[in-house]
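Quick review question:
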């Protein structure tokens, strides 16, 4: 995965509630690299919930004309989603459980591969890695020796890095990302071999099945 792709599929706006158990992301399609192939620019809103069993459930996918939600697309190469509060976001979250859960794989019937990766993988990436993206954006241009070293922000309290890797990896896989390890590595800013090693530890620790399961079944 080319590093330049990261800014292309991170959503331009995100709203989370209850520690991320409810989340909305707005994804903008304004150029070919973000999935726009023909026609007018558009935007897609995704809504998700964290279920009692820990699974991330896709609750809504709404395609609209660009500007429908009155939120400006992010600047070029931006990794930081807008997190401004919107009244309509609360209304959506309050009604999210009245709608049937969406099977992420079913989107293949309606959307292109590039669009699916942006709305599904992008939602998960923003949900878990937004603080990491903000840090990277602020440190852009600094030499490696000048960058602050800290515990990854995606770890839950008392959680090991191995277990956190398994948890987030499963979100990517269950929503059909076929290159989950590569995406994880790009989001965290580490070599993909680092993620592969953690996944091996996760399988030996029974955090993951062997081999991992789930695939988007598109290339």
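Suggested answer, residue by residue:
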């Amino acid at each position: 995965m080319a590093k330049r792709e990261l800014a292309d599929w991170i959503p331009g706006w995100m709203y989370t509630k209850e520690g991320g158990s409810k989340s909305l992301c707005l994804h903008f399609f304004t150029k070919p690299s973000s999935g726009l192939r023909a026609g007018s620019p558009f935007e897609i809103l995704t809504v998700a919930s964290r279920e009692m069993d820990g699974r991330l459930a896709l609750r809504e996918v709404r395609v609209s004309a660009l500007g429908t939600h009155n939120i400006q697309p992010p600047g070029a190469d931006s990794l930081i989603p807008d997190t401004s509060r919107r009244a309509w976001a609360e209304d959506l979250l309050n009604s999210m459980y009245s709608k049937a859960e969406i099977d992420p794989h079913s989107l293949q019937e309606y959307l292109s591969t590039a669009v699916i990766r942006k709305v599904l993988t992008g939602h998960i990436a923003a949900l878990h890695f937004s603080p990491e993206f903000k840090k990277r954006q602020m440190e852009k241009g600094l030499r490696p020796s000048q960058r602050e070293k800290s515990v990854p922000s995606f770890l839950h309290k008392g959680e090991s890095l191995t277990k956190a890797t398994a948890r987030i990896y499963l979100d990517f896989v269950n929503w059909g990302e076929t290159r989950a390890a590569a995406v994880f590595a790009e989001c965290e800013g580490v070599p993909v071999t680092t993620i592969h090693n953690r996944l091996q530890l996760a399988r030996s620790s029974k955090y993951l099945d062997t081999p991992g399961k789930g695939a988007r079944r598109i290339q």
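Why it works: The first strand starts at residue 13 and ends at 17. The chain has six helices and four strands.
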